[in-house]
Specification:
mainly alpha
């Protein structure tokens, strides 16, 4: 049984006790402050790097070098308001939203697939066109899934011995979500959603044998999906050797490697990237980590990884010490979601994982991803605020 689940079983009875230890309102724990500072530093780094990575193309395409920067700053401010709001709202009050929130997000995924409503870009229909703006429902879905799993798994003292009421509904939901995401298609988000669900089942106490079956089955399924479409198959082979198709599917991996190698140990300086001059596609979104490595070198790129590791360690510590099972699972789910997504993005930039279009949390350009991540992090901060 996992540490979170073990503590959760002890906390089950205490959660009903009016004498449960909670941090007094208005106080701040060390965990809270560390998480807040690291998240804000990553967000500010993202704002700076979006300007650096997009300014050349923006000046050429829009006549305004700050085109993407202004949008990122707006989304950061909206996300900051959302984070501050979640810090002040007791996370337990979100529990009634678990099921309806997930159903709404699934409904939005369906709407994305309807011609005229879904916005198709680069061959994928991932955005919902609202006229004044477009949103990516799959980003909201990640938070909704974490909330749903935390609610369902924390309602029972031994959740995974009652598979009909816990394990089967979760895997059923993941199956439905996976089908809808693959219809967009979006293999990267499908893999992250599956990984989030498996991680939360582990934290709830899933036996290692069942965990291995789920992970193995998921890996086989992901490989099968990757091989089922020509462009995904080419991307997989390009990960193994990008020089087999250097002018097409291997181009991004090669240019990303060139950018990283140019950076050396300390980088070539902020704003001095060569890759952003049309060599590296999506430099301000999926490959922003390569620009960080080029401009700030191995030291700067390493500090970004350290930032995510700190979030992981402190976030899981918050989960272990949260005042009730729901808070424990919610904190663990949000933390692992951010870690998994960062791992997938950085792994793709380094050429160790296939390129799937997954953004780097807090840093990559993108409104839906940034706002939802900051709101989710506000929930984690609220739990840390109440953690003894």
């Amino acid at each position: 049984m996992s540490p979170v689940a073990t503590r959760g079983s002890r906390s089950e009875g205490r959660a009903k006790d009016t004498k449960v230890k909670r941090r007094p309102p208005g106080t701040r724990s060390l965990r809270f402050m560390v998480l807040l500072v690291v998240a804000l530093l990553l967000c500010l780094l993202g704002v700076v790097m979006v300007l650096s990575a997009s300014s050349v193309n923006d000046l050429r395409s829009y006549g305004d070098a700050w085109h993407h920067l202004k949008r990122q700053v707006l989304w950061f401010l909206i996300g900051l308001i959302g984070m501050a709001t979640m810090i002040r709202i007791d996370y337990r009050r979100l529990r009634p939203l678990a099921v309806p929130g997930l159903l709404v997000c699934i409904g939005l995924l369906v709407l994305v697939l309807i011609p005229g409503l879904g916005l198709r870009t680069n061959g994928s229909a991932r955005w919902l066109d609202l006229g004044v703006a477009s949103v990516q429902p799959s980003e909201f879905l990640k938070l909704a899934l974490v909330l749903y799993c935390a609610d369902l798994l924390s309602r029972r003292k031994r959740p995974l011995t009652e598979k009909r009421l816990t394990l089967y509904p979760i895997m059923g939901m993941v199956g439905v979500i996976g089908v809808l995401l693959m219809m967009e298609p979006d293999l990267g988000t499908s893999m992250i959603v599956g990984a989030i669900a498996v991680a939360m089942l582990f934290f709830a106490g899933l036996r290692l044998r069942l965990l291995a079956l789920l992970v193995g089955g998921g890996a086989i399924g992901a490989f099968g999906l990757a091989m089922s479409a020509g462009y995904r198959r080419k991307r997989l082979f390009s990960m193994l050797d990008p020089w087999t198709d250097p002018l097409d599917t291997g181009w991004q991996a090669i240019q990303s490697g060139v950018a990283i190698s140019n950076g050396g140990l300390f980088g070539i300086g902020l704003g001095a990237s060569r890759a952003k001059w049309g060599f590296l596609p999506f430099a301000h979104t999926d490959f922003i980590y390569a620009i960080i490595a080029e401009e700030f070198g191995l030291v700067g790129a390493g500090l970004v990884i350290v930032g995510f590791l700190v979030i992981g360690l402190v976030g899981l510590s918050t989960a272990l010490h949260a005042p009730d099972p729901f808070g424990q699972l919610l904190a663990a789910g949000i933390t692992t979601w951010i870690l998994i997504q960062a791992f997938v993005n950085i792994g793709a930039v380094l050429g160790r994982l296939p390129i799937t279009g997954v953004p780097l949390p807090f840093v990559s350009f993108g409104g839906s991803a940034l706002i939802v991540t900051m709101v989710a992090f506000g929930i984690l901060l609220n739990i840390a605020r109440q953690t003894p």
